[in-house]
């Protein structure tokens, strides 16, 4: 891996015999990149755990996001899948954008940049910016965002993160919907699954609400 970080080589761009036109990658070459990316992400996230009561290994999350894109979003673009596998590495580990670009190429790096929060900003500002920037994200970054939110919301449905109150859960759902609304008309299947979750949440809130005000996410 040390040698990889020293050479700025995009694995998705391999020139043909004319040395000017990129050639189509073989299945073996694409598989090699995907497995290399999974291994890279696993190493980066190796000491991290999710906030559920089982302390699930964090690597389950980016792999799960990539799986949602393939299995439910019907997305088979390797650039998107690799970006999904790497989407939290810069934000949550010691990975740098330069490292990602050197190993996995400029397009993957740019997608990861689009979905990465600036940890130097206060949390409230980071969340506000996610809503504000959602509409202007590239199509591929929106795909990663949709799958990421879908994975996280399902996780919360199954097990509320340790230390979270019901009000915090409610606010997370409300904020997530605001982000997703900026990514509309990107992938029907993923948006449908998200809307089903939001509708279920509204229904649950209505059952527990004691006032007469309509509940809107």
Taking pLDDT < 50 over at least 5 consecutive residues as the criterion, the unreliable ranges are: 1-7
| Order of secondary-structure elements | EEHHHHHHHHHH
Q: Helical segment tally?
A: 10
Q: Strand share of the residues?
A: under 5%
| C-alpha end-to-end distance | 45 Å
Instruction: Assign the CATH class.
Output: Mainly Alpha
Mean pLDDT: 91
User: Structural class per helix/strand content?
Assistant: mainly alpha
CATH domain topology: Hypothetical protein af1432
Helix percentage: 55-70%
Largest sheet: 2 strands, antiparallel
Total discrete domains: 1
Number of strands: 2
User: CATH homologous superfamily name?
Assistant: Hypothetical protein af1432
The gross shape turns out to be globular
Radius of gyration based on Cα positions? 19 Å
Can you tell me the CATH architecture? Answer: Orthogonal Bundle
The strand line-up of the biggest sheet is 1-2
Tell me what you see in this structure:
With 217 residues, this protein is an all-alpha fold. It has one domain (47-201): Orthogonal Bundle (Hypothetical protein af1432), CATH 1.10.3210.10. Helix content is 59%, strand content 2%. It has helices spanning 27-44, 60-71, 78-86, 89-92, 97-104, 106-114, 123-134, 139-158, 166-181, 188-208; strands spanning 14-15, 22-23. It has a two-stranded antiparallel sheet with strand order 1-2. A hairpin with a 6-residue loop joins β1 and β2. α2 runs antiparallel to α3 (78-86), α3 (78-86) packs across α6 and α9 (166-181) runs antiparallel to α10. The longest helix has 21 residues, at 188-208. The protein is globular. The termini are far apart. Residues 1-7 have low confidence and may be disordered.
């Amino acid at each position: 891996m040390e040698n990889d970080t020293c050479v700025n080589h995009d694995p998705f761009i391999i020139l043909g015999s004319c040395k000017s036109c990129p050639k189509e990658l073989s299945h073996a070459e694409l598989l090699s990149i995907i497995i290399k990316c999974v291994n890279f992400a696993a190493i980066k996230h190796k000491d991290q755990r999710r906030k559920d009561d089982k302390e699930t290994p964090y690597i389950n999350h980016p792999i799960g996001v990539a799986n949602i894109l393939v299995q439910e979003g019907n997305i088979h673009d390797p650039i998107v899948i690799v970006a999904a596998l790497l989407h939290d590495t810069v934000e949550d580990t010691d990975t740098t954008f330069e490292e990602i670009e050197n190993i996995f190429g400029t397009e993957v790096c740019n997608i990861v940049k689009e979905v990465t929060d600036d940890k130097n900003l206060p949390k409230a500002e980071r969340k506000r910016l996610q809503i504000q920037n959602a509409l202007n994200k590239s199509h591929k970054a929106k795909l990663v965002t949709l799958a990421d939110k879908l994975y996280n919301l399902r996780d919360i449905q199954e097990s509320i993160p340790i230390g979270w109150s019901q009000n915090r859960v409610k606010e997370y759902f409300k904020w997530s919907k605001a982000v997703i609304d900026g990514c509309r008309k990107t992938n029907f299947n993923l948006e449908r699954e998200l809307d089903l979750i939001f509708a279920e949440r509204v229904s649950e809130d209505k059952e527990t609400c004691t006032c007469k005000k309509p509940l809107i996410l």
